[in-house]
Amino acid sequence: MKKLLENKMIRLRATEPEDLEVLYSWENDTEMWKNGVSIAPFSRFTIRQYLIDSKQDIYTDRQLRLMVVLKESGETIGTIDLYDFDPFHRRAGVGILIDKRFRKQGYGLQTLKLMEDYSFDFLNLHQLYAFIPASNTISIQLFTKAGYITAGRLKGWLSTGDSFEDVQVMQNIRPE
Questions:
Q1: What range does the domain containing 15 cover?
Q2: Residue 29 CA: distances (Å) to CA of 41, 82, 100, 117
């Protein structure tokens, strides 16, 4: 039987207290804020409380964060989230971050595929979706390569300070 949440190169695992520093650096990388919902820095205290308070139960928390780890070295190279989990409609949003040093090496696609298998085969979700800033062409290409299709475009969805940016809505519907 195929193992969930891992392949030959990477493994997705639950967050641990030891992830505090790497999460702190990623969450406070201001270059990334335009791609997410952060508008202010996170303190170590806030991230520590998240790590303590998270039940790692998607049905309780309505979200799930998993860390992306290279199996060979044990190095944590990214994170992937399911958010806005809706068990009735069997859907969730997905967000991914791969550390800059490990991008363009295929890890993002592998991570999305592992999360897709977990979401469809174990959680029995009907669909995954992502909201991607229209200017983030690298993410749009990644999600397209992973089998997501463009479902629509939200005009002026994200504030960029001086103006607004569109968001591309992408969906991956479970094959029947």
A1: 10-125
A2: 8, 20, 11, 29
